[in-house]
C-alpha cells in the first residue's frame, strides 16, 4: 500500500469532512495520515454527526474543526472535496495533491422531524463510508497516491528547479530545488503570489499574468532571467514557461522550469563570446570589466556615480544597472539636470503642493518621487545649483524629500544613480559642487572609457548600427570598405559612440552602391590628419589589441591587419613573437 497524506475538505469542516476523517482513520492502512479542514470552519462538530458516527462505532466527539492554516506542513497526496462550495474554491496545499470531488448532500439542510433529519445524517454517513471503502479497499488511493509520489519524485530528481502557479499567480507547487533556490521551505511559499516570493520577479518583462483576468494564449515561452539568492549570490537562469490547461482547453495556470546557467554564462564571458550586455555593445576588455562591474553592483542599493565623456553611453550603463538589480520591475526615470528650467529645478526634482507658488494649481510629484520603487538617474549632476544640492544631500541622508511649499517630509524608496562628463573632484575644488554631496553620490564610481581608448569595439559597433538600419529599412543593406574602415579606426571620435552612430547614418545616406567608401564619410573624418594612405611609421602593437581584433575577425589575419593599421607582414612577425596568440 502506498504511503501518503489525505485531506478531506468541506467549507465548515463540521459534518461531511469530519465523518470522512473518522471513517478514513478507521480503515486507512499504516503509513497513511488523514486530515480534514475547511475554508470557513465551524466552532464545533455538529452534535448529530457525533451521535450518528457512534452508531458506526466511531467516536469523533474529540474532533475540532480546522482551517487550512491548522494543517500539517507536509505534502499531500490526495485532497477530497465533499461539498460544491469547497470544490469551487481554489485551495493551495503543499505537493499539489490530486483533487477528488465527491458531491455529498448536506444533511443539515434537511427539513422534517428530528428523526427524519437524523436519518438524513445516517444516509450521509453511509454514502461517505462507501466512498471511503472504495477509496482504500479497491485500490484507488494506492493508485492515485503512488502516481502523485512518482510525479513529485520525478520533479525533484531533475536538475531544473520547478514551480507552478494558477492564473492569479498563486503558487501551488514548488520543487525541492526551487525552494532551495529561494532559501525557504515549501509550506512558506505555497499559496503566495509569485511576484511576492521572487523579488525582483523571475519573469521580469515576460510576465503573462500581470493583468489579472486576462489569460494569455501561448504554447511555450523561453527567456533568460536573473535571481539573487538570499546570501547575495547571483544566478543566471534559463526559464521555460508551459501553460497548464483543463481538458476543455481553458487555462489553469503555468509550470515554470528554471535551469541554472550561471557557470555556462561565466564560461562564455571568459571566452569573450559576449559582444553586448543589456543593450550596451562592446567587446574590448575594458567593456568586459564594465559589464562585470554592473553585475556586481546590481546586488546592492548603494548610490552609483558614472563619469564619462559625452556620447559614451552613461544612460545605457545606468539603465543596465537598474535592469540587473532587484528594482528592475520598478520605474527607471532619467533626469537631465542641465536641461531643467532654472526657476523650476526644485519643483521638477522634488515636486510641489497646491498653492506653493503662482501656477501651482494642484499637487505634483517630482521626478525623484516618480521613480519610487525603482531608480532615479540624475544625468549632468554637476549642473545642479548649490541650493538644490543641499536638498538632494538631505534626501540621500534621510530617504525623505520635502516638496516645495510643504513642511511634511515624504518618504521615497528610490535608488540614485548620477552621471556627469565633468570631473566632480575638480568641481569640488572650484567650489562648484558640495564636497559632502560628492561623497554621498560617489559610493561606487564608474569610469567609462572613451571610444578612442577602445577602438577594438569600432568594427562591432559599426556592424550593430548597420544591422539597426537594416531592421528599419528592410531593403537597405550596407557594408564598409576596408579604406573607409581604416579611416574610422584612425579617427579619435570626440563625440564617442553617439558620433560613430551619426557617422554611420550619414554614410548610408550618401552611399550609392551598398558599400561605404571614404568619400561617403563626413568631412571631419576625410580631413583627419591622422589618416595617411601611404605607408608611414609602423604602428606599435599590443597583445590585447591583437587578440581582440583576431577574435572580431574570426581569425582572419588580413582583415585584422587592416583594422590594426599595419601590414600583414608586420602582424605575422608580431604573432611569431607571441605564440600564445596562435592558440
DSSP, total strands:
22
Overall pLDDT, averaged? 84
CATH architecture of the largest domain: 3-Layer(aba) Sandwich
Strand order in the sheet with the most strands:
6-5-9-8-7
- The shape is elongated
Biggest sheet descriptor: 5 strands, antiparallel
Structural class: alpha/beta
How would you characterize this protein structure?
- By secondary structure, this protein is α/β, with parallel strands linked by helices.
- It has four domains: 4-148, Rossmann fold (3-Layer(aba) Sandwich), CATH 3.40.50.2300; 159-264, Beta-Lactamase (2-Layer Sandwich), CATH 3.30.450; 299-449, Rossmann fold; 452-582, Helicase, Ruva Protein, domain 3 (Orthogonal Bundle).
- It is elongated, with a radius of gyration of 34 Å.
- Residues 529-538 have low confidence and may be disordered.
Task: Give the helices and strands, then pairings.
Layout: E1 4-9, H1 16-27, E2 32-37, H2 47-55, E3 78-81, H3 84-88, E4 98-101, H4 114-137, H5 140-157, E5 161-166, E6 171-174, H6 176-182, H7 194-197, E7 221-228, E8 234-245, E9 251-260, H8 262-270, E10 276-277, E11 280-281, H9 285-297, E12 304-307, H10 314-324, E13 332-336, H11 345-350, E14 351-352, E15 364-365, H12 367-370, E16 375-379, H13 386-398, E17 400-401, E18 410-411, E19 415-420, H14 424-429, H15 435-441, E20 444-447, H16 458-472, E21 479-480, H17 482-490, H18 496-510, E22 515-516, H19 523-526, H20 543-552, H21 557-564, H22 568-577
Parallel strand pairs: 1-2, 1-3, 3-4, 12-19, 12-20, 13-16, 16-19, 21-22
Antiparallel strand pairs: 5-6, 5-9, 7-8, 8-9, 10-11, 14-15, 17-18
Helix pairs in contact: 1-4, 2-4, 13-15, 16-18, 17-21, 20-21, 21-22
Amino acid at each position: 500500500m502506498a504511503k501518503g497524506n489525505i485531506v478531506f475538505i468541506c467549507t465548515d469542516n463540521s459534518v461531511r469532512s469530519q465523518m470522512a476523517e473518522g471513517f478514513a482513520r478507521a480503515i486507512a492502512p499504516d503509513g497513511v495520515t488523514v486530515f480534514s479542514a475547511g475554508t470557513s470552519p465551524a466552532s464545533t462538530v455538529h452534535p448529530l454527526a457525533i451521535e450518528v458516527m457512534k452508531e458506526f462505532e466511531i467516536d469523533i466527539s474529540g474532533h475540532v474543526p480546522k482551517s487550512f492554516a491548522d494543517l500539517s506542513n507536509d505534502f499531500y497526496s490526495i485532497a477530497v472535496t465533499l461539498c460544491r462550495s469547497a470544490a469551487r474554491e481554489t485551495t493551495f496545499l503543499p505537493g499539489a495533491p490530486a483533487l477528488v470531488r465527491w458531491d455529498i448532500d448536506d444533511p443539515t439542510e434537511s427539513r422534517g422531524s428530528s428523526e427524519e433529519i437524523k436519518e438524513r445524517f445516517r444516509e450521509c454517513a453511509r454514502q461517505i463510508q462507501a466512498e471511503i471503502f472504495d477509496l482504500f479497499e479497491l485500490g484507488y488511493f494506492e493508485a492515485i497516491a503512488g502516481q502523485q509520489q512518482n510525479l513529485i519524485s520525478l520533479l525533484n530528481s531533475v536538475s531544473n528547479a520547478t514551480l507552478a502557479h494558477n492564473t492569479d499567480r498563486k503558487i501551488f507547487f514548488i520543487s525541492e530545488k526551487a525552494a532551495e533556490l529561494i532559501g525557504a521551505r515549501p509550506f512558506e511559499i505555497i499559496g503566495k503570489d509569485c511576484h511576492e516570493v521572487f523579488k525582483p520577479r523571475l519573469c521580469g518583462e515576460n510576465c503573462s499574468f500581470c493583468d489579472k483576468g486576462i489569460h494569455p494564449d501561448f504554447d511555450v515561452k523561453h527567456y533568460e532571467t536573473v535571481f539573487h539568492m538570499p546570501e547575495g549570490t547571483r544566478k543566471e537562469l534559463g526559464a521555460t514557461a508551459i501553460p497548464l490547461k483543463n481538458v476543455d482547453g481553458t487555462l489553469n495556470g503555468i509550470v515554470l522550469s528554471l535551469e541554472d546557467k550561471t557557470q555556462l554564462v561565466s564560461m562564455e564571458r571568459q571566452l569573450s563570446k559576449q559582444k553586448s550586455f543589456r543593450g550596451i555593445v562592446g567587446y574590448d576588455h575594458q567593456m568586459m570589466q564594465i559589464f562585470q562591474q554592473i553585475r556586481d553592483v546590481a546586488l546592492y542599493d548603494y548610490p552609483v556615480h558614472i563619469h564619462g565623456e559625452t556620447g559614451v553611453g552613461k544612460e545605457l550603463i545606468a539603465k543596465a544597472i537598474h535592469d540587473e538589480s532587484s528594482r528592475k520591475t520598478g520605474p527607471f526615470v532619467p533626469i537631465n539636470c542641465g536641461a531643467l528650467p532654472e526657476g523650476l529645478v526644485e519643483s521638477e526634482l522634488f515636486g510641489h503642493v497646491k498653492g506653493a507658488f503662482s501656477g501651482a494649481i494642484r499637487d505634483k510629484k517630482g521626478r525623484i518621487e516618480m521613480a519610487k520603487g525603482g531608480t532615479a538617474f540624475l544625468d549632468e549632476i554637476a549642473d545642479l545649483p548649490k541650493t538644490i544640492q543641499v536638498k538632494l544631500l538631505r534626501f540621500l541622508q534621510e530617504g525623505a524629500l520635502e516638496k516645495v511649499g510643504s513642511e511634511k517630509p515624504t518618504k521615497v524608496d528610490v535608488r540614485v544613480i548620477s552621471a556627469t562628463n565633468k570631473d566632480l573632484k575638480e568641481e569640488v575644488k572650484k567650489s562648484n559642487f558640495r564636497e559632502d554631496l560628492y561623497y554621498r553620490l560617489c559610493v561606487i564610481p564608474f569610469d567609462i572609457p572613451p571610444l578612442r581608448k577602445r577602438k577594438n569595439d569600432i568594427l562591432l559597433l559599426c556592424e550593430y548600427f548597420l544591422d539597426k538600419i537594416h531592421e528599419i529599412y528592410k531593403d537597405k543593406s550596407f557594408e564598409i570598405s576596408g579604406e573607409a574602415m581604416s579611416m574610422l579606426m584612425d579617427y579619435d571620435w570626440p563625440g564617442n559612440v553617439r558620433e560613430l552612430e551619426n557617422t554611420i547614418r550619414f554614410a548610408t545616406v550618401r552611399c550609392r552602391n551598398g558599400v561605404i567608401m571614404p568619400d561617403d564619410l563626413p568631412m571631419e573624418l576625410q580631413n583627419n590628419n591622422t589618416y595617411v594612405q601611404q605607408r608611414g611609421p609602423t604602428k606599435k602593437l599590443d597583445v590585447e589589441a591583437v587578440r581582440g581584433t583576431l577574435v572580431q575577425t574570426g581569425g582572419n589575419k588580413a582583415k585584422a591587419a587592416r583594422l590594426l593599421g599595419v601590414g600583414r607582414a608586420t602582424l605575422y612577425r608580431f604573432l611569431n613573437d607571441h605564440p600564445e596568440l596562435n592558440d
